[in-house]
């Protein structure tokens, strides 16, 4: 277990013993700080020690990358290293063109500024504009590098719920089908032999007269993956007109990120963050039950 506390820009760690010199102090640091980070802090004076206390300048003040914009943002989890925000429907995670406003990233940045935190928000993953649920942000370069590595190593779990058309024959299953661009449509994706590997697990939670509620877990993170794979199975998401869904029940795809699981950047403790269902999806579920 890592014993630590924050002091302004510095992370203070308690070492097992008092180091004899700088090299020894570096050797006493947990493995997660080794490599390029030690070299970076060494070159910038970012390592100090006194007694068995070793300090790292882990939280430097930094300029903004995007202009912040006031917006209501529901923070589901936050500490000195990272933040999880609940994305509403109709909001992009980040700007996709110069001068674009109204994104979750800008709303999170406003929240940080309002709380007196002089750091930049960095999104670790994305959700489609009309998909709701938790989005993970890092607050500093070191945290981002750790969370990006966890994402590459498939240690970040994303659990979704979706309401699909029809009643899947199987109670659970795996869709292992590569996804690539649709050359006939600028934004659509499709299952393609030459696409990137994509694996989706699903389980039926509830069955209705002509629809079903599924729990879905991603093993990969391709663009529109759930939407493409469910359409491929013949069970398009309700509201997902881009992939064959009927819009009469919902004006967007019936897809919500219900849980996000990730190792904490410092301790690697598993963080399990749940996001409440949005009102439109709750309403659709109740109508289908009746």
UniProtKB/TrEMBL annotation:
CDD domains: PseudoU_synth_RluA_like. GO terms for molecular function: pseudouridine synthase activity; RNA binding. Coiled coil: none annotated. Pfam families: PseudoU_synth_2. Its EC number is 5.4.99.-. Residues 83-231 form the Pseudouridine synthase RsuA/RluA-like domain. It comes from the Bacteria. Signal peptide: none annotated. Belongs to the pseudouridine synthase RluA family. This is Pseudouridine synthase. It comes from Paenibacillus solanacearum. The gene is rluD_4.
């Amino acid at each position: 277990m890592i014993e630590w506390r924050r002091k302004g820009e510095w992370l203070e760690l308690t070492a097992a013993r008092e180091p004899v010199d700088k090299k020894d102090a570096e050797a006493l640091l947990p493995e997660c700080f080794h490599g390029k980070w030690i070299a970076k802090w060494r070159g910038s004076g970012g390592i100090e020690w006194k007694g068995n206390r070793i300090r790292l300048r882990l939280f430097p003040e930094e300029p903004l990358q995007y202009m912040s914009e006031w917006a209501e943002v529901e923070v589901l989890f936050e500490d000195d290293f990272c933040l999880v925000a609940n994305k509403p429907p109709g909001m992009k995670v980040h700007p996709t063109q110069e001068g674009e406003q109204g994104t979750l990233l800008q709303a999170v940045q406003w929240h940080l500024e309002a709380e007196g935190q002089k750091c930049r928000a960095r999104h670790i993953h994305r959700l489609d504009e009309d998909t709701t649920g938790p989005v993970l942000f890092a607050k500093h370069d070191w945290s981002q590098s750790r969370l990006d590595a966890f994402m590459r190593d498939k240690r970040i779990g994303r659990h979704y719920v979706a309401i699909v058309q029809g009643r899947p024959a199987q109670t659970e299953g795996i869709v292992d089908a590569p996804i690539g661009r649709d050359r006939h449509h600028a934004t659509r994706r499709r299952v393609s032999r030459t696409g990137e590997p994509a694996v989706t697990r699903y389980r039926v939670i509830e069955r209705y007269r002509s629809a079903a509620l599924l729990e879905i877990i991603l093993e990969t993170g391709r663009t529109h993956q759930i939407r493409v794979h469910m359409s491929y199975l013949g069970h398009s998401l309700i509201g997902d007109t881009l992939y064959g869904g009927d819009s009469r029940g919902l004006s967007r795809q019936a897809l919500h990120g219900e849980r996000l699981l990730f190792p904490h950047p410092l301790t690697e403790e598993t963080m399990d963050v749940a996001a409440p269902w949005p009102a439109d999806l709750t309403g659709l579920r109740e109508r289908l039950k009746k």
